[in-house]
Amino acid sequence: MKSRSLSALLLLLSGCSGPQSVLGAYGQAAIALKDLIVFIVLVAILIWLAVVLFMAFALLRRQRQPVLDSRSERRIMAVVAIATAATAFVVAVLTIASFYTTRALNSDGTADLTITVRAQQWWWQFIYADQDQRQMFQTANELHIPVGRTVRLHLQAGDVIHSFWVPSLAGKLDLIPGRENILTLRAEKPGVYRGQCAEFCGLQHSHMAFVVIAEDDADYQHWSTMQRLDGASPSGAEAIAGQAVFLAKPCAACHTIRGTPASGSTGPDLTHVGSRRTIAAGLLETTRGSLAAWIADPQTLKPGNNMPVVPLTADELRQLSAYMESLR
């Protein structure tokens, strides 16, 4: 019995850590939320202890007067009044704490970086704005930010309601069609933080994940410089043939690869798809094998997604996967 209880406790505690934990807070907003959670839990524990001690005192105290007299009634009324006042005070304190925490979640100051986040069934599009339109670029399901910098996210939805949630960095906020919401991120520690759509948005809602990669300034600047470049020219017979297959098939009508005639906007930008950690919104690691599997039959891997099955021969599939892997 003891071993079962210990196992259950360990199972519960396992939820306090991991790649997506509100208690593993490394962002300014997430730290404020964690402090609020801890404060509320401590207050609740103190209230519980006070109630238990009062009940124990009442049960153990010898009843001297079997019949209530006016003095006893006054004592009871006093206890009720004190309990009511204490309840009102606790509710007021928690309300004020929640109010100031909410205000602290979004900074009104100047942001160091502005990124547009567009959620679609079932993937994430991140558009990095720049005053020079030629310097703008976008990624899919992978958000890079510099450590210690304030990043303002403009949240938009392309179809249904979604919700952007990176518990280690900030609270969640909905993305609503026809309306733009603003969320501020600030990572205080380098790392890879998992995010997830937190609003049910259809069949593949659970497979709509992304990662936020917080990097030092030098690493972030190197990454952003590379992302602004056009797609790498293929080298090797297979990759060169794969580019020809990509441009000849419907792929080029849905996807963009900068530096080629492909300029579709329906699906993710594939200019640097080979450098991303995952494909299909966190479903598969980016390897040549997973790229080939996804291209061959996306509906089996992620039923209901908007990528159609494109008829390909075995040679074309091999060539196309080699080209996708080369886009780094």
Explain briefly what this protein structure is.
This protein is α+β, with helices and mostly antiparallel strands.
Main sheet strand line-up: 3-2-1-5-8
Query: What is the count of helical runs?
Result: 9
Query: What count of structural domains?
Result: 3
What's the shape?
Answer: elongated
Measured as a percent range, the helix fraction is 40-55%
Question: Which homologous superfamily in CATH is the superfamily of the largest domain?
Answer: Cupredoxins -  blue copper proteins
Subcellular location: Membrane
Keywords: Copper, Electron transport, Heme, Iron, Membrane, Metal-binding, Respiratory chain, Transmembrane, Transmembrane helix, Transport
Membrane topology: Multi-pass membrane protein
Protein name: Cytochrome aa3 subunit 2
Could you walk me through the main structural features you see in this protein, from its secondary elements to its overall organization?
Its main location: membrane. Subunits I and II form the functional core of the enzyme complex. Electrons originating in cytochrome c are transferred via heme a and Cu(A) to the binuclear center formed by heme a3 and Cu(B). Keywords: Copper, Electron transport, Heme, Iron, Membrane, Metal-binding, Respiratory chain, Transmembrane, Transmembrane helix, Transport. It comes from Rhizobium mesosinicum. InterPro entries: CcO_II (IPR045187), CcO_II-like_C (IPR002429), Copper_CuA (IPR001505), Cupredoxin (IPR008972), CuRO_CcO_Caa3_II (IPR034236), Cyt_c-like_dom (IPR009056), Cyt_c-like_dom_sf (IPR036909), Cyt_c_oxidase_su2 (IPR014222). The protein has helices spanning 2-13, 28-60, 70-105, 217-228, 237-248, 251-254, 288-296, 298-301, 314-326; strands at residues 113-120, 123-128, 137-140, 142-146, 151-157, 162-165, 173-175, 181-185, 191-197, 209-215, 278-279, 284-285. Strand 1 and strand 2 form a beta hairpin. The protein has a five-stranded mixed sheet, with no helix packed on it. 41% of the residues lie in helices and 18% in strands. The chain is elongated. It folds into three domains: 22-62 and 69-105; 113-216, Immunoglobulin-like, CATH 2.60.40.420; 237-326, Cupredoxins -  blue copper proteins (Immunoglobulin-like), CATH 2.60.40.420. The chain contains nine helices and twelve strands. Helix 5 (237-248) packs across helix 9 and helix 7 crosses helix 9 (314-326). It is of the alpha+beta class.
